[in-house]
């Protein structure tokens, strides 16, 4: 079962993550599917209309949210209670948090790809993404293997990827990405 809470309905959240970063705008707990992606994107677009967020910042935030939601949809486990997605605002900046269960093999692959991307410059991220798209290779989900790259690019590299265990048998990957207004 999934649940989503727009802002103000979830002001009693006890997560130190959302308390530390600002106002919890939306929290989703449970599997992410196409209906939940549509719901969250519709909510975000409506919410951004009520802000003085710059056009470029809105576009980057929406694209970042799409990438993180697609990651949860395609790589999250349907029966997992570990899937979590949050959007937090703080004085013109936005932070997006996602978490999903992974296998140890997925963790190893993610760490290898992440470590490689972290050695590259933003311009190299852009070139790598263009090369992968031009190659025509697609995953089972139709993606070009550029999700991590796109997350980094949309957040100007302000992304943290960590691994934790929610219990002895369930490792999770956590992403925290920040979108700041351009000055």
Report on the structure:
The chain is α+β, with helices and mostly antiparallel strands. Helix content is 44%, strand content 25%. The protein has helices at 16-21, 34-49, 55-75, 104-118, 122-135, 147-154, and strands at 3-6, 23-29, 84-90, 93-101, 159-167, 170-179. The chain has a six-stranded antiparallel sheet with strand order 1-2-3-4-6-5. Helix 2 (34-49) runs antiparallel to helix 3 and helix 3 (55-75) packs antiparallel against helix 6. The chain starts with a strand and ends with a strand.
Provide a count of the helices.
Answer: 6
User: Could you give the distance between the termini?
Assistant: 41 Å
Give a short account of the largest sheet.
6 strands, antiparallel
Rounded to an integer in angstroms, the radius of gyration calculated over CA atoms is 16 Å
Order of helices and strands: EHEHHEEHHHEE
What would you call the structural class? alpha+beta
Task: Compute the average pLDDT.
Answer: 84
Tertiary shape: globular
SS elements, strand count? 6
Q: Could you name the ranges where pLDDT drops below 50 across 5 or more consecutive residues?
A: 7-16
Helical residues, percent: 40-55%
SS strand fraction: 25-35%
| Largest sheet strand order | 1-2-3-4-6-5
Furnish the topology, listing elements before pairings.
Elements: E1 3-6, H1 16-21, E2 23-29, H2 34-49, H3 55-75, E3 84-90, E4 93-101, H4 104-118, H5 122-135, H6 147-154, E5 159-167, E6 170-179
Antiparallel strand pairs: 1-2, 2-3, 3-4, 4-6, 5-6
Helix pairs in contact: 2-3, 3-6, 5-6
């Amino acid at each position: 079962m999934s649940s989503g809470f727009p802002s103000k309905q979830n002001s009693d959240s006890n997560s130190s993550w959302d308390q530390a970063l600002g106002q919890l705008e939306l929290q989703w707990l449970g599997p992410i599917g196409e209906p939940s992606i549509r719901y969250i994107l519709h909510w975000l677009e409506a919410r951004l209309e009520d802000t003085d967020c710059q056009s470029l910042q809105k576009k980057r935030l929406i694209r970042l949210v799409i990438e993180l939601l697609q990651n949860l949809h395609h790589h999250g486990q349907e029966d997992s209670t570990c899937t979590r997605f949050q959007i937090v605002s703080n004085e013109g900046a936005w932070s997006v948090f996602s978490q999903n269960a992974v296998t140890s093999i997925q963790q190893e692959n993610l760490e290898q790809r992440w470590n490689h991307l972290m050695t590259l410059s933003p311009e190299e991220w852009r070139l790598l993404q263009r090369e992968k798209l031009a190659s025509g290779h697609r995953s089972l989900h139709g993606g070009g293997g550029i999700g991590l790259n796109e997350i980094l690019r949309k957040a100007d590299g302000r992304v943290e990827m960590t691994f934790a265990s929610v219990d002895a048998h369930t490792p999770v990957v956590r992403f925290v990405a920040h979108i700041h207004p351009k000055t």
